[in-house]
Write a structure and sequence with these properties.
Layout (H helix, E strand, L loop, with lengths): L12 H21 L8 H29 L5 H30 L1 H21 L15 H5 L7 H21 L1 H7 L4 H11 L1 H18 L1 H18 L1 H4 L7 H33 L5 H29 L2 H26 L1
Helix pairs in contact: 1-2, 1-4, 2-13, 3-4, 3-8, 3-9, 3-12, 6-12, 6-13, 6-14, 9-10, 9-12, 10-12, 10-14, 12-13, 12-14, 13-14
Length: about 350
Amino acid sequence: MLDRWSPRTASGHYRTWLLILQSLMVLSLLGLALVADPVHGLGTVVILAGAFVLFSATQDIAADALSVRGLDSAQHNKGAGIQVAASYLGTLVGGGLALLVYDLWGWRAAVLTLVFFTALALATVARYVEPPRAPRSSSRITFKDMFGVLSQPGARTWALVAVPLIALGSGALWSLVTPALVDAGWSLTRIGVVTSVVASVPALAAALAGGRMCRRWGRATTMLLGAGIQLIGGLSFIPVITTLWPVGGGLELAFGVLGTSCVLAGYTIMNTGIYAVNLGLARTENPGGDFTLLTSISMLGGTVGAWAGLTIAAYSNYGVALAVGLACAGLGIAVSRRGVRLAR
């Protein structure tokens, strides 16, 4: 729908959507700020938070469409790195700074902090000049429009085999982090700070570096390196969760932070490779729908992988789940070489 129709195309097709949806995100957050007690007003919080997520996800379609239209093939690797890195910058603000403000000044101050940063993005959108689009002969949505990206040479192998395997494997590894730290006796506060804030810093750097590595070494090699970094992260948890090499105090914290950071950084590098290929596959006449379809397949694979990783760990142990996850990711990377060559 976003690819086909816009309220005011004279202001820029996708830019108009961004201005509308970003404003609705701000309004939904302002509604949350009016809730005096989020515990007693939980129903209102759930409704407004659900609206915010809907507006945010839809806004993301328009933003990705502009990435597809605005970046030429030589910029896809760098652009993918910036996109993925920016998401972790958002995690630092939304998951780190907002929580700090909440601890110091309470609910409303934390939500208003989110309002400020969400509204700040409007200034960038308002200054953006969108390239003109060729007029469409019809606004009718067809099956080809929605799934036509999969008809390109190599796209089905990439999107329906390689990406699900990579996402399933890396998602399985990331899902093991929190329960492993819980089993090690870490507090939920410490786990939240390490996984959402501390580990986001190297993940941000890994995304930017991943874009450069994709350009220099190729996307398949870069994603394989990401899997290797995840392996280092998994091995770093051995002293934390087993008695084979018991450690305590600051050393346990160091191994836990190292493991978490490596697993997330490796996951980020693989995501950067996936984003770069997806940017190349998405058609400029249908950029929002194409990129969103490809990304949704990856997200679905990660969700299934998280369930699979936890299930395997529950019926065996973390080591077996780690090995299965790495094997799936490695197999997906091997299959991906066709798609990587296609969109390089």
